[in-house]
Amino acid sequence: MSTPPRLSAECYRGFGRFFLTICVEERRPAFALAECVIRTRCELLRTLVDYRFAAIAYCFMPDHFHALLDATTPGGDFRRCVNMFKQRSAFAHKVAAGEKLWQDGYYDRILRDEEATLGVAAYILNNPVRAGLCVDPRSYVYAGSTCWSIDDVWDAIAQTPVTWRPHRWRRP
User: Fold this and answer.
1) pLDDT at 167 over 80
2) Strands (E), the chain
């Protein structure tokens, strides 16, 4: 797999909201195992604190991960944060499971001001419902937020139709 193209580094620095997707190596269902999710979520939360980001919403699907991250300081650097999360979680997984966790690269989208945060959060939290993993997103234990309880997030997005979709990256 080739790495998706990136914008200039300045676009990823400072305050901003970022949609993120990272796929498991060979799209294996690594996150179908609770211990893998718990281990990876610990590294996510540690990295978000270290790099001054909040997770408005995140979701571990069996073979990939989605998040909507928000820089909480003007010195936030999304690329550095994601790279450190991938490095830490990959190392922890390699030690525990003896295999590679992530595919190379990741997909991101810098949200514009007019793009609704709640629409993106609704997309992320409804992902397990669309995949048939649960009926109610509040019951999916592998999703959450570092800002609010899942019930608070759901109350905020409950009236938000899921119309937002990430743009697909296509190889040139």
Assistant:
1) no
2) 17-23, 53-61, 64-71, 107-110, 143-144
CATH number at residue 122: 3.30.70.1290
Closest CA to 157 of 145, 141, 142, 170: 145
Model confidence over 68-95: pLDDT tens digits? 999 999 999 999 999 999 999 999 999 9
* 45 occurs within a structural domain: yes
pTM: 0.89
CA distance 156 to 5: 33
Domain-embedded: residue 36? yes
| Domains: count for the chain | 1
Evaluate whether 139 touches 73 at the Cβ level (below 8 Å).
Answer: no
| Strand (E) or helix (H) holding 26 | none
78-97 vs 34-51: helix crossing angle, rounded to 10: 150
Share of the chain above pLDDT 70, in %: 88
Question: By residue range, what is the domain housing residue 52?
Answer: 9-154
Residue 172 lies in a domain: no
